[in-house]
């Protein structure tokens, strides 16, 4: 009877282990189920706030181009900051936001842009220009920023972003997606907020990430994908095996030296 109970217990353990191993841990948005269509959660609004060291392109125009020419910088540089000039085609100079969050524009002078979106800056400059020019048109563009993707992705690297609308999914796609060892339920976003480094965790299995304020990435965000338990266990196993091999190798080497000494003393 004891043997019978033992066999039943072992069979139950095997069945439970088998059920656990078939659990789907690789899919995204698992809470949506298998429904063929539906409405996703309300998306968060995107709008990057300008920060020091950002590079801006600002063009002021109107129905009379000559009237707004004085508000634009002259066409001079042929490449953006950090790029090599490949063609001698002049374009309007850009503005680098200084440490105080200011830029200096012709005629207008100092303009504080830190903490504002490009749309807000357009409205602010347009208001100043309209004091002397009728119906001005102002176009402000953020010329790019960097995002770092690290951890259990297929191609971890620093990504140059040339659009203000760049999501966590965009970053993971640019990095080749997660590996099978990436922990999809615990992706970390590290962000500089008000001069402090903060972190936030998102669950890729839950579609509610679309409404998270951290779904849209910002300047210098770091996306870190943690390893899952399988990767951690494999790492520990490999480390233990490496340690064991090192110990065995040391013992064998020591034994070989001792044997050589004994043989040498015996021969004498």
Protein traits:
268 residues, alpha+beta, 3-stranded antiparallel beta sheet, 5 helices, 10 strands, elongated
Can you walk through the features of this model?
The protein is an alpha+beta fold and 268 residues long. Helices cover 31% and strands 22% of the residues. It has helices spanning 2-21, 65-68, 118-129, 168-174, 229-267; strands at residues 55-61, 95-96, 102-105, 109-112, 137-142, 145-151, 157-161, 182-193, 196-202, 222-227. The strands form three sheets. A five-stranded mixed β-sheet has the order 7-6-10-8-9. It has a three-stranded antiparallel β-sheet with strand order 2-1-5. A hairpin with a 3-residue loop joins β3 and β4 (109-112). The termini are far apart. The model has no long low-confidence stretch (mean pLDDT 81).
Topology, pairings included?
Elements: H1 2-21, E1 55-61, H2 65-68, E2 95-96, E3 102-105, E4 109-112, H3 118-129, E5 137-142, E6 145-151, E7 157-161, H4 168-174, E8 182-193, E9 196-202, E10 222-227, H5 229-267
């Amino acid at each position: 009877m004891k043997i019978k109970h033992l066999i039943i217990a072992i069979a139950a353990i095997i069945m439970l282990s088998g059920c656990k191993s078939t659990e789907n841990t690789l899919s995204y948005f698992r809470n949506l189920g298998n429904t063929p269509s539906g409405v996703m959660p309300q998306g968060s609004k995107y709008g990057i706030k300008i920060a020091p060291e950002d590079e801006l392109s600002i063009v002021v125009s109107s129905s009379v181009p000559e009237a707004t020419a004085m508000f634009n910088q002259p066409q001079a540089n042929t490449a953006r900051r950090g790029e090599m000039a490949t063609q001698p085609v002049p374009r309007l100079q850009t503005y680098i936001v200084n440490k105080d969050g200011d830029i200096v524009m012709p005629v207008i002078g100092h303009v504080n842009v830190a903490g504002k979106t490009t749309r807000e800056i357009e409205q602010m400059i347009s208001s100043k220009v309209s004091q002397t020019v009728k119906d001005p048109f102002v176009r402000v563009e953020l010329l790019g920023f960097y995002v770092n993707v690290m951890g259990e992705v297929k191609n971890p690297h620093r990504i140059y972003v040339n659009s203000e609308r760049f999501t966590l999914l965009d970053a993971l796609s640019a990095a080749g997606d997660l590996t099978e060892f990436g922990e999809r339920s615990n992706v970390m976003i590290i962000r500089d907020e008000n001069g402090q480094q903060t972190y936030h965790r998102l669950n890729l299995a839950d579609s509610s990430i679309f409404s998270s304020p951290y779904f849209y990435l910002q300047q210098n965000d770091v996306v870190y994908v943690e390893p899952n338990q399988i990767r951690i266990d494999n790492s520990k196993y490999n480390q233990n095996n490496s340690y064991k091999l090192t110990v065995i190798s040391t013992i064998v080497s020591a034994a070989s030296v001792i044997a050589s000494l004994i043989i040498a003393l015996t021969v004498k």
